[in-house]
Design a protein that fits this description.
The protein has 433 residues and is of the alpha/beta class. It has 21 helices and seven strands. Strands 2-3-4-1-5 form a five-stranded parallel beta sheet, sandwiched between helices. Strands 6-7 form a two-stranded parallel sheet.
Length: 433
């Protein structure tokens, strides 16, 4: 159960590149600047000799295991790793007993690192509580799932929750360049062409471990690593896609226009292209949410619900699973009846406001709840719609300057067709037509 980071284990077993390149100090950690700056809670905890309890929550490859190891290394504490995938209550208790013996015999504290702690059931998590409460170990749990849903409250309330973010492209690039030159990595024995480096960055998708795994696979094939070598090593073609250049704008434009044109197959192609190129899934989700109101609108109001749910799902679980949620929303948007009446309506209303067509709020609609409002005549003559048949009563709602303006002009498409008939009847009634 002792960690593979122990020196004996390091000498006995060749380590993967991603393990060899793990930082040894907080200053060597790439990314997560919001957690590692001077005065941050993690810094203060590392600099303290007191036991601690942490949860590290973030996507794969963002450095959860790395931070746990660095905490152990910097504080000179024994490091014991338990995987929630394969360990049971017996393993947890054995690790805790070992930590108690070490503490009693030598005074040395133990970092108990539980990877994928969200996979532990309640009984397994309960087994950790005595060690956390009695400070027998420094407990660090790593999870890719929202701990508020997957971790028992007593354990979470006794721990500091730190949220890790996906690495930026610049962060991943630094990780790769360091691995190429550092003696713990490739030690300069291989060269990486600039285009190949960028392909590795795109393939990583913010996951440092994945980038190093792919680099190591490519280095096994050739000392001069080109795009072709990377493609062969990871069996994934390079998608020619510059997230800051023309391809970015051309592909997202084609994506939107394919959904607008109701071609679900074409829209899915462009979605796949963006995902494989490493486009930020949150950017894709935002564009789908906009589309749901801009191009579908009231023709299918449930489309916006699907789009927002997909955006939230992507935020919660990330890739690769989030691609299913995105595809779900894309298919719904593409096949939904289309209407741009919503965007035209707000555009026309904003246009009039910007031209100065504002006017005074009618007196009977003004707020009459504050002291003195009645003396000003606010609310006088207001008719409460619920007091009338069908919940409708004829009175002026718009300022005089825009009275009679028609902003929302619904189409006959999908569910908006029903709304169009209802809105026509309501509008005629309210305006006395």
């Amino acid at each position: 159960m002792e960690s593979l980071f122990d020196s004996a284990a390091e000498d006995a077993t060749p380590q993967p590149l991603a393990v060899r390149m793990r930082p040894r100090t907080l200053d060597e950690v790439i990314g997560q600047r919001h957690l590692l700056g001077q005065g941050t809670p993690l810094r203060r905890l590392v600099e303290s000799e007191a036991p601690m309890s942490l949860f590290l929550w973030g996507p794969p490859g963002t450095g959860k295991t790395t931070l746990a190891y660095v905490v152990s290394n910097v504080t000179k504490r024994r490091f014991v790793e338990v995987s929630a995938v394969s360990a049971g209550v017996k393993d947890v208790r054995a690790a805790i007993d070992g930590a108690k013996r070490e503490l009693g015999m030598t005074g040395r504290q133990t970092v108990l690192f539980v990877d994928e702690v969200h996979r532990f059931n309640k009984a397994q998590q309960d087994a950790l509580l005595p060690a956390v409460e009695n400070r027998w170990v420094t407990f660090i749990g790593a999870t890719t799932e929202n701990p508020f849903f997957s971790v028992i409250s007593p354990l979470l309330s006794r721990s500091l929750l730190l949220t890790l973010e996906s690495l930026s492209d610049d962060d991943v690039r630094v990780v790769l360049e360091r691995a190429v030159s550092d003696e713990r990595g490739l030690g300069g024995r291989a060269t990486v062409a600039p285009e190949a480096l960028e392909h590795l960055v795109r393939l990583a998708g913010g996951d440092a471990r994945r980038s190093l795994t792919y680099l190591e696979a490519a280095a096994l094939l050739a000392d001069d690593i080109t795009v072709e070598v990377v493609e062969k090593a990871v069996d994934k073609a390079a998608v020619r896609y510059d997230r800051q250049g023309d391809q970015h704008y051309d592909v997202i434009s084609a994506f939107i226009k394919s959904m607008r044109g109701s071609d679900a197959d074409a829209a899915l192609h462009y979605l796949a292209r963006m995902i494989e190129a490493g486009e930020d899934p949150r950017f894709i989700a935002r564009r789908i949410v906009i589309f749901a109101s801009e191009d579908v609108g009231m023709a299918d109001p449930t489309c916006l619900q699907t789009a927002v749910a997909a955006a939230q799902a992507v935020q919660l679980i990330g890739l690769p699973e989030g691609q299913i949620n995105l595809a779900h929303a894309v298919i719904h948007c593409a096949l939904a009846p289309k209407s741009n009446a919503v965007v035209k309506a707000i555009g026309a209303a904003i246009g009039d406001v910007r031209r100065g067509l504002i006017g005074q709020v009618p007196g009977h609609l003004r707020d009459a709840h504050y002291p003195g409002a009645a003396k000003l005549g606010h609310g006088d003559g207001y008719k409460y719609p619920h007091d009338f048949e069908h919940g409708l009563v004829r009175q002026d709602y718009a300022p005089e300057q825009v009275r009679g303006k028609r902003y929302y002009e619904p189409t006959k498409h999908g569910g908006e067709g029903v709304l169009a008939e209802r809105w026509a009847r309501i509008r005629d009634f309210l305006r006395g037509s």
